Amino acid sequence: MNYRHAFHAGNFADVFKHAILARILVHLGEKPQAFRVVDTHAGAGRYDLEGEEASRTGEWLRGIARLVGATLDPVLAELLAPYLEILTRANPEGLRVYPGSPLLALGLMRPQDRLIACELEPSAAAALTGNLARDRRARTVAIDGWVALNAYVPPRERRGLIVVDPPFEQRDDFLRLADRVAQAWRKWPTGVYALWYPIKDRSGPDVLADGLVRAGIPKVLRGEIRLPAGDPPGEPAGLSECGLVVINPPWRLAGELERMLPGLAAVLAAGPPAHWRLDWLAGEK
pTM of this prediction? Predict the structure, then answer.
């Protein structure tokens, strides 16, 4: 595995993904019963935005830096508040650190909730262990994320969120994601599953969507965002579109995303507007 998320930490895709994950975690915390988060491809958990990797690409300047520097309308500010609060806690003296999904989860979890953060790549796994070592709610495991996806469901709490954010280095990763998630859902049909994916063309995302529908999963919500090509002008073209599928979304999430995604897309785009969509692959229409 050659993928290193440190090059991409805090980019538009992270902002899109983590803003939605924060809303899901907020809803899970509204009931008194404990819940568990399983992060199958957790990465290092914490990223230095002024480090060598992030500085080389500068992707965070077109992602989290734009959001932090923007004036938000009241509705968008309210919906993003839990996510931005975690970011503020990690950066008391200005934007320097980007918290990955494990630290985001811990920031929105309660004393009774638990996190299993999985990472196989040795250097990222070592960093993850160090970044989570002081939190007794967290457990790090050096395990293949695809194996973890089925190994840790159903959790003892019977409530929770499975975050699947693979590197998509193999041609069949979209098909594998649909197949492995369908297997996990059959073992734990009431869990919430959040599946991030890049969009380079429609073939992979369509394979994922078709696989989830064919599996018979009854509630599947999909959100996507696309930034203008060549943003900013003159920079090499990189990833400009991504999506997130949520299985068993909390009942208010779709309404929140209908309000949040237009504003978020506008903030993340410089110049021509970004595009977004939100639809149901299965379930509510």
Answer: 0.95
